[in-house]
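Suppose a colleague, Dr. K., hands you the sequence of a protein chain of 660 amino acids and asks what its three-dimensional shape might be. Before reaching for any lab equipment, you can write down a predicted structure in token form. Begin with the sequence itself:
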Amino acid sequence: MFPMLKIPKLVRWIFCTGIIFLLVMSLFRFVLFLFSSGQDNHFSDVIPSFVLGMRYDIRDVCLLMLVLLIVGSFARLNPFQSPVGKRIALLITGFAVLIMLLFYIVDFAHYSYLSQRLNASVLNFFQDAAISAKMVWQTYPVIQIIFELIIGTWLINWVIKKIYKLIRNKKPESTRNSRITWFIICFLLFAWGMFGRISQYPLRWSDAFVLGSEYKGQLALNPFESFFNSINFINDHYDIGKVKDAYQILAPYYGLDSNSIQRLSFERNIKPRPGALPTRPNVVIVICESFAAYRSSMFNNPLNTTPFFSKMCNQGIFFERCFTPGFSTAKGVWSVVTGIPDVSSSSFSRDPAAVNQHTIMNDFSGYEKFYFIGGSTSWANIRGLLKNNIDDLHLYEQENYNNSSVDVWGVSDKNLFLNANKVFAKQSKPFISIIQTADNHRPYTIPKEDENEFNRIHVSDDSLAVSGFKSNDELNAFRYTDFCFEQFIDAASKEAYFDNTIFLFVGDHGIPGDAGSILPKAWTNQTLTMNHVPFLIYAPKLLAPKKIMEACSQLDVLPTAAGLCNISYANGALGRDLLDSVHITGKNFAFIYTDYLGVVQGSYFYRRQLKTAREEMVSVVNNNPVPVNQQTNEAKKAMSATAQSFYEAAKYIAFKNKKK
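The predicted structure, expressed as tokens, is then:
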């Protein structure tokens, strides 16, 4: 009756193929919902995420369907009219299936570790491909994953081919006019599906984060959306006008001369302050891998994971609200060494234009300088950062130790510490050193040589969950870190250098997770657990114990060490001496940069999402909503200006803080 409306075989097959892809992508989202830990959402709570997620999936599937439609519209390439067309169409769908499964596999691994969907930062691993490949091999069942990838690709393609054969065997029922009509209908339909909505503006990646929580937004996305939309943020540039505005706002915090704004110099020449130690103490900075505060004993974790470190905190100066500006080991090392938050889309250490940096370590005149790592500094150009900028640095890596490597990260942390201790014990001059640990990281290896002395524990899934851990391997790796601290301090305390040494321990970053009742809800819901780390200054023979609640940062480690050591130094970065009561009292804050700009100051945490400009201000001391009044409105406005200024200044200083 309506011959022009008879559906061509090509269109029927394309729609069937699209439905298969949509079903598979929806299944992956449901699996992610089932296995995403630390979430109390019922399925009814996340229905909006699934609805929005389906729209993202439709957009991606429509792209594939549009390609098949355009290619198949040519008679010689139509899979139902030409053997060549059949081979090309099945090759396209086969490749699409492989890419889809590969993206989701990587996405699941990425989310399980970082609680974030796959994004363009994963490309950084290719710059350290050898180490990354070893870590993946030692952490994941690679052979099993490859086998599942092959089976999954074959199975989905088998279904697509089966449907193709069923449609092919149907009697021809479409005319030329009907094929043209359906081409136009489908072209417009697929184009609209890719646009994502009936509106002036298309469906955007950022739309996922108006659902009320970060988890719901992450669930709505698929790896194609999160990956390809994040590529746009890889390149970093600063705006000189915005830097000038930032300079004016930050000037009171850092004692900058606001009248010298045209020079835009953040450099301050710091003189020894009252309260500095009269001796020339040694300095040992320990950058602790994944040292999430909420998982430690200092914050009353139910599993009492770090009893020795907690004991040290009671004997030292402990900062309860220390935050890392970014989230990655490379960014953490950069922040400690340079005093600049790493606000790059990748990491500043990889940027040839930013690798030349002044570090306060060079102002420790007359000091020997050391850096110890259990493996290699070849990743993220850390070797270039260290060797290029720290004068006469003695760099110790895996090949410098007599111990065997235990996994991709080299020798164990215990042996790393003990080797460093032997070197320190031989020094006749004062020294400053950084020790970078790694064992509290996948694949969570406990060396066989320590199995007897270090007692593994095994707890229930419920106990793991309320303590913020995902597995017993992860728990024991965290506990092993405390074991290694104890081995190090016990060995060091027997050496002559110990009594005149300041030990500073700080995490390279935290770990996103559920802090439950350990900390107020904001620490979990606003992902502060990613950046909250312990910071301890331990020198029992030199410093009286003290606990400090004001916010601070990794950026402050070297300025504080320099202040204690009674030296003059040049500081062109954004760290401050936390024990300089004259210049810092009342001005304490910590800047955070991930997918938002944030500031922790006083009782509040403020953040603004980079992609949606959505603002939040929450309490970090309790679960009460922030009262809406003139005082909190002014605080929010000030914190917003501080966060934006810090971000603009960091982008600028990274390219201006050249080595002296």
